[in-house]
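ok new one. same drill as before - structure tokens go in, u give me an amino acid for every spot. 184 of them this time. try not to just spam alanines like last time pls lmao
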């Protein structure tokens, strides 16, 4: 009889451990109804992703928040809603898997779809950390780390090629001011 109770106890304990681990390591859900809640959701996702990243690969949080807000209109864009794409990421291969831009069905690109909003942020982090076109960003991040500063404004001008809009750095600056007004 004691052995049977012992097995039941161990079984219940194992189930609880797996449940706790599942909850602790599950990507955070995005739930928001306003700009502030959107930024909080992006922050939770970034916290989750950074747990398993090397310090030198982390994207400055203010930059990540600013780009997510700008690229997705605080999570209200069609691409954010239908494709979980918070970062305005295009794809040029496998066009059948992406979203067609409105009013441009013959575009040579698609807007990428992701299984979750947090996955789009994970992809964005990888993009900035690996693509040659963002080498100047990585060099600036390394420099700021070495001299112990965190000046997000210096990054904005290095991401001019993230967008086809020539005013992109100015749009980032404006969006960053909005985020600061929200308390971030």
């Amino acid at each position: 009889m004691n052995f049977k109770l012992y097995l039941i106890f161990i079984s219940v304990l194992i189930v609880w451990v797996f449940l706790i681990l599942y909850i602790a390591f599950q990507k955070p859900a995005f739930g928001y109804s306003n700009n502030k809640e959107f930024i909080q959701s992006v922050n939770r996702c970034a916290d989750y992703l950074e747990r398993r990243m090397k310090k030198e690969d982390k994207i400055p949080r203010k930059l990540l928040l600013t780009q997510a807000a700008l690229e997705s209109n605080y999570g209200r864009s069609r691409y954010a809603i239908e494709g979980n794409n918070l970062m305005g990421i295009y794809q040029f291969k496998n066009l059948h898997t992406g979203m067609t831009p409105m009013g441009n069905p013959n575009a040579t690109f698609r807007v990428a779809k992701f299984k979750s909003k947090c996955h789009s942020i994970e992809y964005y982090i990888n993009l900035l950390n690996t693509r040659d076109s963002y080498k100047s960003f990585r060099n600036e991040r390394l420099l700021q780390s070495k001299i112990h500063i965190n000046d997000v404004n210096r990054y904005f001008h290095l991401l001019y090629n993230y967008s086809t809009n020539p005013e992109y750095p100015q749009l980032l600056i404006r969006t960053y001011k909005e985020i600061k007004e929200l308390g971030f």
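Confidence is low (pLDDT under 50) at residues 19-25. and btw The radius of gyration is 20 Å.
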